[in-house]
Specification:
alpha/beta; CBS-domain; 3 domains; 4-stranded mixed beta sheet; 15% strand
Amino acid sequence: MKFRIKRLEIYISYLLPAVIFAAILAGRFLEYLVLLLLITLHEAGHILYANLLGCRIHSISFLPVGLNAGIDTGKLSHRCRIAVNISGPLVNGVLFISGLLIAKDSNGAIYDFFIYPNLYLAVFNILPIWPLDGSKILQDLLLARTGLLFATGLIRALSAILAIILIAAGAVLIVVGSLNLSLIVIGGYILYAVRSEKIEMAYLDIKNILNRRSHLKKKKMLPARVIVVLQSVSLGELIKALDFDNFHIIHILDDSFALVKTITEQEAMDGMMRCNASVTLKELVDGIMQE
């Protein structure tokens, strides 16, 4: 169910009442309620820090696994995006340490309901699995070194591998007599997320490039990165080397390493829009010189 409150889109999952009812039937409603609260506090960490940096919150989703906020971080530097993404696990880390300090003379209930869940949430969310916080942190760490497409491709591959490991571990536990489907369910969900989010990840790459262009128009200045590339390289390969935070100046060399032409990333993007990703930089330059 979706509705809007001014510019904020609110989404409530139809599965949420069913999961709450199932938790009540299983006698686990209190544990589920506490977990939802901790996940909501985790998400609040993202929201509060993003607000401090001036980001717009465009959606709030109420899901069976807790609150999820849609935050527009496209105009932030990669360091600020890392800070926003790590703020959620940090909240759970602080709650975990606070719980340990409070629980010195307490019984085991606080460990089961508060301390261990916060530890699990902090650790699980920094794993490099899409769409967890860890995958977004790793993506921003890789961008300046590897470019857009390689970083997202690597994260999707890591996510799939870790998901398969979780499913295998869950299957082993069942074989040895421990009937716990949680690892299989989590692994299956990750595989589904990796498959369904492929288009969204590609969209986010393009969106961040476009955001950088609008940011340059607004600020009038941006840091630049110089790339030297042979003219035999395709536009698709070149785009893979771009990152989010710099405007790129591209020096194109021939096979003798002589400078053929210098272009900007905008000219490369325009060329890919006119032609396709398989066009070489030599073909692009020849086309520019003929115009």
